[in-house]
Design goal:
globular; 4-stranded antiparallel beta sheet; about 450 residues; about 25% helix; 7-stranded mixed beta sheet; alpha/beta
Length: about 450
């Protein structure tokens, strides 16, 4: 359906079925969608539809696997009022994806055919993909990572895709073995789940012919703690390539190169297929090692947020750079390091503290499955540092032990003053921990 819609000159709006009802209704209304392909098992997620949406939408039954639900001999045809389609150009819209909207209403990133093809080509360039490669897609295609990295890129390279219905940690290595996958794209949360059950796997990692065709795994959508990256490579004997991408840039902007070239733990790598710089508050390019905001420019970058000219104007500099909102620096060898989001920066007593630095220390403890530091209001310092942690199953650690770990590694000034234990940290559609939502979950 995704590819057919683009080929037919229409715009797809993939929806996250487990999003809140208000978010689903907002996306359908704001996008002015006219056709909804809907699996019967998900119908309750969209009920009751507001009258205006019900009148706007033609609902067509779909199967759980994303096909059309047809009777024998039935031919599908969706007839719209403007059925005639003009010849497509590269800059015509193809995909509309809504950001998670953690600090307000979601923004609709409108991506063109040119954007999607450029995003796919950037993946091919970074990972040296060929027609012999086969990707395992365990990420949803309502997120840009799934759509571009593990659908668009393999098809553009002439390769193929293994696409199970959803991620299952217990089936992950089985899928790669049975269908001879050569690479996969995952997020840090998935990596932690795989590590947690590594001892239950029936494979001798590093010396198992059933997995010999795996070239690499890649991580994106959220920062990957160096300790987690190293644990993955040591446990599974598969190179883990950290990358970085955005919805607005049709996925990847940075990637570590493949071995034997160096890949640096804690860095999402170097630019492939687009330009990336670090800029100061006046928009001037920063020197190596100086922290600023990441700016991006290239054919993969969107031109507009749908029906949101104010957000579009704010997102671009006068000379055409897209402002990512991510803070970081570039080292002398051109590798980028991300220190956090502008809106997530903790300012304690006038000093800037990057929450990512605290997260990375907490992930060093073997009992920690998920971790995120955040700033809370404080009368004395303006903001104080706290952290939320979810533990691995059957693992225990005290708040005092985790705080002491941080004090010993990054010092008392940056160490969290309190640790809150949660069963699970809130995450967006891509699996990225939504740091600012933690403020609503702690007492």
């Amino acid at each position: 359906l995704l590819l057919a819609t683009a080929y037919g000159g229409r715009v797809s709006v993939p929806l996250n079925a487990v999003a809140g009802r208000e978010q689903l209704h907002y996306a359908l209304s704001h996008s002015e969608a006219r056709v909804l392909f809907l699996a019967e098992s998900l119908r309750e997620r969209l009920e009751p539809l507001p009258d205006a949406l019900r009148q706007q939408l033609k609902i067509i039954p779909a199967t759980e696997d994303g096909g059309l639900q047809l009777s024998l001999g039935q031919t599908p045809k969706v007839v719209l009022a403007d059925d005639a389609i003009d010849p497509l150009s590269a800059d015509d819209p193809a995909l509309l994806l809504y950001t998670s909207g953690t600090t307000g209403a979601p923004k609709g990133a409108l991506l063109s055919h040119r954007n999607l093809l450029a995003g796919g080509e950037n993946v091919i360039l970074a990972h040296e993909l060929s027609a012999q490669d086969r990707a395992l897609c365990v990420l949803p295609i309502y997120h840009i990572n799934g759509t571009v990295v593990t659908v668009m890129a393999p098809l553009l390279s002439g390769g193929s895709v293994i696409m199970p219905r959803r991620f299952q940690a217990s089936r992950f290595w089985h899928w790669l073995a049975e269908y001879q996958g050569s690479w996969c794209s995952v997020v840090p949360t998935i990596i932690n789940y795989l590590l947690e059950r590594a001892g239950q796997e029936p494979y001798t990692f590093g010396d198992d012919a059933r997995l010999a065709h795996i070239r690499f795994a890649r991580s994106a959508s959220a920062p990957l703690a160096p300790a987690v990256l190293q644990a993955f490579e040591q446990t599974f004997a598969v190179p883990m390539i950290e990358t970085m991408g955005l919805t607005e840039t049709a996925a990847p902007i940075l990637s570590n190169p493949l071995p034997p070239a160096p890949h640096k733990p804690g860095s999402p790598g170097i630019a492939f297929g687009n330009e990336v710089i670090v800029a100061d508050a006046e928009g001037r390019e920063c020197a190596a090692g100086e922290i600023g905001e990441l700016y991006i420019r290239g054919p993969n970058v969107l031109r507009t947020y749908y029906k949101n000219p104010d957000a579009t104007q704010a997102a671009f500099t006068p000379d055409g750079w897209f402002r990512s909102g991510d803070l970081g620096y570039r080292d002398a060898e051109g590798y980028f390091f991300i220190t956090g989001r502008r809106k997530e920066l903790i300012i304690r007593g006038g000093e800037n503290i990057a929450p990512r630095e605290i997260d990375d220390v907490l992930y060093r403890h073997p009992a920690v499955l998920e971790a995120a530091a955040v700033g809370v209001p404080d009368d004395a310092y303006g903001q104080e540092v706290i952290a939320c942690v979810a533990l691995c199953e059957d693992q225990q650690v005290s708040a005092e032990e985790l705080i002491e770990l941080c004090v010993n590694i990054i010092g008392p000034y940056k160490a969290p003053k309190k640790i809150f234990f949660l069963s699970e940290l809130p995450k967006g559609p891509s699996g990225k921990i939504q740091r600012l939502k933690l403020l609503d979950l702690i007492p």
